[in-house]
Amino acid sequence: MANLRAGLIGLGMMGRHHARVLKEIDGVDLVAVADSFGDPHGVAGGVPLLSSVEELIAQGLDMAVVAVPTGLHEEVGLALAEAGVHTLVEKPIAASVPAGERLVEAFDAKGLVGAVGHIERFNPALQSLRARIEAGELGDVYQIATRRQGPFPARIADVGVVKDLGTHDIDLTAWLAQSPFATIYAQTTTRSGRPHEDMVVATGRLEGGVITNHLVNWLSPMKERITIVTGEKGAFVADTVTADLTFFENGTVATQWESMAAFRGVSEGNVTRLAIAKPEPLRTEHEAFRDAILGIRNDVVTMREGLATLRVAEACLESAATGSTVELSA
């Protein structure tokens, strides 16, 4: 069987990594790349460097990756859908819910694989964590809390931190719990002088009853990517920078120091850093996209799922603007 002919549009900070992986994975040939600003990271190599999605489509593509600024996702995505090209769009799916809806409708109408690059689902620590939750290792899940903080990114951001970074946490939380958001309440602030919010604190409840908390910002001098899932048997802590997963078990040994026992509630048990394989998440994401096109498996983040995540992100911004909790319809 011939390799899939792939194109990439957008050669910025994420585009350069997509180009590398597209050149590495089996069953895919990167036949052309495109960016109206050229190739700042020199990733084109021996493939044609083009300037528009129309020129890219003319190369005869089976699949494409879209890594342009968020405001261009709809325009580029619709052109690829019209041309019958399976497409992976970087997150978030689009700059607004109506734009995301148009993308979902366009790819569904053509029967194409439309995926969104919520890469955290392919982080080995979170994949292992989800499997362990599903297997009952934590018992009932009570809470999922995330911290995603760091300095301002070098890349251009045409959306605020909620849609750019916060969508990672919205998506991974609903995916880990296998339950959509029911409510969300958020507070934001803007401290960097840019037009969009650069810090958010959000709390929510999933339809399954799990409560959530999310701290996301571009204002911290340290980089942190932590997910904590607490349940009846203890807590899992996933660090998605290092792909480490640690289990803090509720103890079975009685604490004899009365005042400390009362203070701590559940007693401390064993702490286990779990040994897991650590493939590169971006490569795993691309392999899933390739296999979805070939009909081998279907574990991509669909455009419909990406749209649901964007709805929650917009609800966060609505909540921050109104000071009220926003209920999300099922």
UniProtKB/TrEMBL annotation:
Organism of this sequence: Arthrobacter woluwensis
Domain Gfo/Idh/MocA-like oxidoreductase N-terminal: 5-118
Entry keyword annotation includes NAD: yes
GO molecular function: nucleotide binding
Keywords noted in UniProt: NAD
Annotated ranges, domain GFO/IDH/MocA-like oxidoreductase: 127-236
Full protein name: Predicted dehydrogenase
PANTHER family: BILIVERDIN REDUCTASE A
Domain of life: Bacteria
